[in-house]
Structure formats: structure tokens, C-alpha cells
Amino acid sequence: MSAKEQSGANMQEYPTNEERTAQYHEQFNREKTLRLLLTEACPVIFDVGANVGTTLREFTEWWPEASIHCFEPQEECWDELEGNALKYSGGQVTLNHCAVGSIKTDRAVFYTHNISRGISGFHKINLESNDSIKLKEVRESGEQGLAQYEEGLNQERPVEVI
């Protein structure tokens, strides 16, 4: 037996990242967590920031009789969200093309970004921050890449907040 085999023979085997993730999901997942909170068979669910309806699909699988109210102010998401509402709901979904907040207004400043439909909201992306999405890679691509990146960020539009 080689020295490598001998040293490895006494080492404890550890699960891979994938195995640990699978173990985690066996014990903790969204459905289990939400079922602890929503114990009714026909709950009323508010999906705030519904985006294109990914969570809507999950809710209709877990609670087929639920009444679901989706709130999404971003126009780029509406067509796909409406399609998913028709596909998954059986008519128990109410779509609201607005945001939800603590202060009601007809014209809140909402920021969208060309990076992803899922990255939008009431706060600008800070271009000075090293944590900004893909900023390191964009800076490495040169001034033109950075200018194009900046152009696609922080596009303001008014949205209704209820």
C-alpha cells in the first residue's frame, strides 16, 4: 500500500457540496417552511414581487385551492406573469400591476435594469460599490463595456404603490 493510500485510509470521508445541499433540502425547504406558516387548506397568499410567476407556480402546486394575489410593478414581467396565472391558477389568481409598500402613492420612483428582470426595485444599483453585480468583470472589459453596463442600469419609471 502506498503512503498516499495509507494516509487516506484513516481519513474521515466528508460529503460533497452537492450531497450536503441535498441533505439540507431534505430537512429545510421553502415548501416545508411555508407549510408551517400556512396551515389552512385554502389560504389567501400575497405574492409581493411576483416577477414572472415562478413562486405562483409553486403556490398553486402546494395549495391548489388558494386565493393568490400577485403584485408586480415591472412591466417587462407582466406578459409572462399573466400567462403563468392562466396556466397554473384555474382563476384563483388576482394580478396587481403595482408595488406594495408602507406609503401609498401613484408615482414612486422604481428602478429597472437590463441585467435581469429579477433585479429591480426602489433603490439604485451603486456603481461605486465593489459588490455591484458583475462590476468587476465589466471594469475588466474596458471603458466601452463599463459605459454600456452603466447605460442599462437605474432606469427610472413611476409606479403605483398600494
TrEMBL record:
InterPro entries: FkbM_mtfrase, SAM-dependent_MTases_sf. Residues 1-21 are annotated as: Disordered. Residues 1-15 have a biased composition (Polar residues). This is Methyltransferase FkbM domain-containing protein.
